């Protein structure tokens, strides 16, 4: 019976992937229809597993978004490399609790190997620690917890023992164009908005370094959050200059590299993130540019001691290895019981190799440039700024026209993109982050925009 259910699920999954090029990218059913299809009373008794799987797949299908396909350009969402998807299936079947070495030696070692591969790929300092977490939000939480421990410890305060009440004030210096996950992580760590010193950013979203230096002038415990890849424009803060300023002030430098950190894997593009290696911590996602299934984020820390001190835990009943033993993931992540996320990351990295990762990043950036160039022939389109990496920001005339054109393209099913705000006005953002995206996908999307303009 298990074989029948798994084989049927595999067939449904394969059919779904094969349909991505021809099915609408967006959903085809609304909220009430999906509630009707998936809802109903909880059965009183068991239902045959094969029936459950088949009916679930049929009911969910019109509410699924074709985000694994080549014409999904929303929210910097990647697809799933074949090896990573297959490894993720195995991860589910193996069902390992990847919290302790004792629970799954293979999961522990796979995380150790994949973490070191990533550290080398990004050229981060030797000996940097790492944690596999659900996403960049959790990676920020992990890194900033380590930062909080470090800067307060230097000020003579043990925050894990004494908490924040009565602690020396910590200044958190952030850019006006930071990602919202930074604020949320800081809030969860007990830093309210009054703790934030917000420095201005230029039109592309790059932090004003002179303003940063002024903000750090007064001294005292400080954490600076910089950015590698602004979410709308893809712009990079001047990480070398920021590292100079934070080093001189004795502040901790954290880099939000949710997708932009991956340029470090490309010999042609790594200059954009020059100076990143001088930071104290870094956060990124593997479910973006590495194209592993959701969810998968990674935190890196140049200082293992505060990293471990901030998040590790012990209990009498746990079988823990100790500082000199095998890797216990619980020492590095905020999670306790946790999925073995390193298996898909390991598979993706091994299937691509160093050159394959670089090619994936460069190819996506090339598609973004092609799309931006093609927009020049679309009547009324204004491309906002130069394409830096994989993000294209553009608009059509006024706000209403921009929204109507976007709605027409999404409703056509040819592509899926999201709207945003740029300079106080509505805009459209295209993000190329999928290994499946081809030149044909870009041309089909451009054609969809030409038709949308003609129709509006």
From TrEMBL:
Alphabetic keyword roster: Decarboxylase, Lyase, Pyridoxal phosphate
GO MF annotations in UniProt: aromatic-L-amino-acid decarboxylase activity; pyridoxal phosphate binding
> GO terms for biological process?
carboxylic acid metabolic process
Q: What is this protein called?
A: Glutamate/tyrosine decarboxylase-like PLP-dependent enzyme
The reply to whether Ligase figures as a keyword in the UniProt entry is no
Q: Which family does it belong to?
A: Belongs to the group II decarboxylase family.
Q: Which organism is it from?
A: Actinoplanes campanulatus
Species classification: Bacteria, Bacillati, Actinomycetota, Actinomycetes, Micromonosporales
Kindly list the residue ranges recorded as spanning the membrane: none
